[in-house]
Amino acid sequence: MGGFDIWAPDATLGSVDATLSGKSLEQVDLLFARPLSTSEGVTFDFEDALTFDLGVRRVATDEKTGRPTLTLASDEALLQDYRRIEPTVFDPVQQQPGGAVSQPGSVLDAVNRALAVVGEQIGDVSFTVPISVLHNHSFEVDAENWRPLDSRFAVSQSTVTSRSGTGSLRVAYNTAIPSLPFPGTAVVTQPYYDLAVNEVNFGQMWVYTATARQLALRTADLATLTYGTDWMEAAPTTGWRQMSATIVPTTPRVDLTIYDMTGGPSGSVLYVDDVVIYRGGFTDRPSSRVPSQESIKWEPGVSAWDYIKPLLDTYNLKLWCDENRTWHLTRLREYARPRDTSDFPNYRERAALNLRRDDLTELGVTVDRDADDWFDAAALTYTWTTAAGVAQTAYDTFAFEGWSKAYAATINRPFPGKGAAEQLVRRASTRGRVLTVTGLSEYSAFPGMRLDLPDDLGTVAAVEFNLSDHTMRVSPRGLERS
Q1: What is the pLDDT of residues 374-421, one digit of tens each?
Q2: Both 471 and 360 in a single domain?
Q3: Does 291 map to a domain?
Q4: Residues 417 and 439 occupy one common structural domain
Q5: φ and ψ at 309, to 5 degrees?
Q6: What is the DSSP string of 153-214?
Q7: Is 403 helix (H, G, I), strand (E, B) or coil?
Q8: Domain span at 184
Q9: Which residue spans within 63-131 are E strands per DSSP?
Q10: Are strands 226-227 and 36-37 parallel, antiparallel or unpaired?
């Protein structure tokens, strides 16, 4: 129950069979203690108190006995329900819990609170457009501000090939260029981006990224003709590669230069695309380009969850709501204890959930690599149309070395950046061997706890409590044989 896996659609957090005559079904708050007997004849004998703040998803009533069966869910279900009616660009940095959107209703309130949590953590990179000092990064129109240092090079905008969109920066040799050692030390007459003095302030941290073929990008001080120490990994001879580096300039002047480590005869052509440089330190996974307004536009008919999930996937983040309607945003592989345990009435500080054979009513193992939800490689194709009517396509791929089964899907929405394919593969690859763990309820169990089983070690991904027979089903992840 606590931290049910939101990645599964239509999540049902629990079912309670009880008579609630004369009580409102808009929201149910349940407190089970030991012992508890109700006037309706339902008796519970739990060792621990457990508090729920859940909404009713379904009510089925036995007309003969007058006894309803309730299906309850946390606010995660509301994000799956809610859909935009009018298009908007959402800015979670400005969003506050329960505010910003004045439309009343518990559904919208849940959406606001969830997106506010996201905005507090990653809004400055994922959802808003970071200010790039490169005023022309995607080369969709021209190659403004990109210049050669001398006549041996020609720099222009090209539509022959591109990493994203339809344009890229084309660098052509007007004469033969010798190959250069990589990394090198002295600046040669390479094309560069004409940055204004102090545009990238020295002493501050900056991130710059690009995709390129046959070259790398370096910062340099062209006044002294020396490179900085921020070596960006070189691109291969063929194919596009995303590159990134973090810099802390030590001189007032910084220029972004193209560094060709292969050389070539007259007529050789190199390409660069999606070049961004902005104030760094925001994230572990800097985007290869400035996020566009299209990638954060919330189209009519799109659910709150379908809108926010691709943006979270880009940064390997997981958004989930616990049984007390509190939202959490964590790294996908770091469920971690709550930041503030005062918000969690059910939380108990425990190093691990230790389940011995005597505690378990079921411990089954299923190994099935033919299942549709198991794969170790993924290729996602994003297709969309810009506001100008231009059709766009982008790809996100990831595979483990020696992969054997690939998943492919086409997603009709603007490309939010790489990361979703990796997230899918890492989750799916653990499904080849599945443990079914059911035992006596332990209400201090919480996602993120270390899980110690008779023959396996792992982490608690989700816990489902059955309130009628005092058992729980634990969903493990990251299993290793002990």
Answers
A1: 888 899 998 888 767 788 888 888 888 888 888 898 988 777 767 778
A2: yes
A3: no
A4: no
A5: -60, -45
A6: EEEEEESS--SSSS-EEEEEESS-B----SS--B--S--EE-PPTTSS-TTS-EEEEEEEES
A7: coil
A8: 146-279
A9: 67-73, 88-89
A10: unpaired
Query: Can you say whether the dihedral through the CA atoms of 371, 374, 377, 378 is positive or negative?
Result: positive
User: Which amino acid makes up residue 184?
Assistant: G
- pLDDT tens for residues 115-171? 655 554 444 333 334 456 666 667 877 887 787 777 778 888 888 887 777 888 888
Q: Tell me if 153 sits within 8 A of 189, measured CB to CB.
A: yes
In a domain, 386, yes or no: yes
Q: How far is CA 366 from CA 97, 430, 431, 433, in A?
A: 42, 12, 9, 6
Residue 479's φ and ψ, nearest 5 degrees, are -70, 140
Does 331 fall in a domain? yes
CA proximity to 87, closest of 420, 414, 419, 380:
414
Digit-coded pLDDT (tens) for 41-69: 333 344 445 566 777 777 888 888 888 88
153 and 9, same domain (yes or no): no
Angle, helix 304-314 to helix 420-428, in steps of 10 degrees: 90
Say if 31 falls within a structural domain. yes
Question: Would you list the DSSP string of 122-160?
Answer: HIIIIIS----S-S--S-SS--TTEE-SSTTEEEEEESS
Sheet strands (E) in 248-405: 255-259, 269-279, 297-298, 317-321, 327-331, 352-354, 360-367, 377-385, 391-399
Q: Which residues contact 63 (CB under 8 A, 6 or more apart)?
A: none
Q: What is the CATH number of the domain that holds 225?
A: 2.60.120.260
For residues 21 and 23, what is the distance between their CA atoms, to the nearest angstrom?
6
**355 plus 380 within the same structural domain:** no
Distance in angstroms between the alpha carbons of the first and the last residue of the chain? 26
Is the separation of the CB atoms in 310 and 416 below 8 Å? yes
How many domains are there within the chain? 3
